[in-house]
Write a structure and sequence with these properties.
With 252 residues, the protein is mostly helical. Helix content is 74%, strand content 0%. The chain has one domain (21-245).
């Protein structure tokens, strides 16, 4: 449509030269948030899932379910939570830049602030439990589903803080989903929207273990395996959408 303030990219090497300055700044921060989210997903979701799966289905192998495995997993969770915190901050800054032209990003910004508090709580509690991994490993006895009850036996306040931190972080990720949906419509960018959908699917998968405490969830052990896939693919799609939409290759 001629004269429209919004244009779409027509090919891999074609960029939208009508993207405003605020949108360019927001997309640049989306890229940084996506990179941090990708590293965080690998550290906090992908590698721990792989280690725990190998320990559960290959007993006696390299990955034995003991305090050493828990220590490595705990450090990965801390590193992943730090990267998710950075990712939320970058997305929040990106939404703040876009808010100058679209006030609908206010909800996404507020939720990202809430999520930041949640990841800070997770980092603090995970660091606190580093000294109690031997007793926690003995309590779990190779059954990761017992982790929360074992944390509760060690420190009820710490376990409650983990749950609160998880849900606050979950709400922060909802803010990312909302912001990506609005941004994908505004730019427009199909890849940003797909990234938002994948983040939404990840959030639904992460809720299922809690839902299973209230009702039977068929195939739960197989569904949760999708969490690393969604967690890794989502930021990659966001990264692709942000890169294709920024007119970095356009002539000055």
């Amino acid at each position: 449509m001629t004269g429209s303030p919004i244009a779409t990219a027509s090919g891999p090497g074609t960029y939208d030269t009508s993207v405003s300055r605020h949108e360019q700044k927001g997309l640049g921060r989306f890229r940084m948030g996506a990179w941090a989210g990708f590293v965080g997903a690998v550290a906090a979701i992908g590698l721990p899932f792989a280690f725990l799966w190998l320990a559960a289905y290959n007993p006696g192998g390299i990955f034995a379910f003991d305090s050493t495995l828990l220590q490595y997993t705990n450090w990965l969770l801390i590193a992943g939570a730090l990267m998710f915190l950075v990712s939320l901050m970058m997305y929040r800054w990106g939404f703040s830049a876009l808010r100058k032209e679209d006030s609908r990003f206010n909800v996404a910004i507020a939720l990202c602030w809430i999520g930041s508090i949640g990841f800070i709580l997770i980092i603090v509690v995970a660091s606190y439990f580093l000294g109690s991994l031997d007793s926690i490993a003995g309590c779990i006895r190779g059954q990761p589903t017992q982790a929360l009850s074992c944390l509760n036996s060690q420190s009820p306040l710490g376990a409650a803080t983990v749950v609160v931190g998880f849900w606050l972080g979950w709400l922060g990720s909802v803010g990312i989903v909302i912001g990506l949906f609005i941004g994908g419509w505004r730019i427009p960018s199909v890849l940003l929207t797909v990234g938002g959908v994948l983040y939404l699917l990840l959030l639904l998968v992460l809720v299922l273990p809690f839902a299973s405490l209230l009702t039977h969830v068929p195939g739960l052990s197989y569904i949760v395996i999708l969490a690393p896939l969604f967690g890794i693919l989502a930021p990659l799609f966001v990264l692709g959408g942000a890169r294709r939409s920024v007119p970095s290759a356009a002539p000055a």
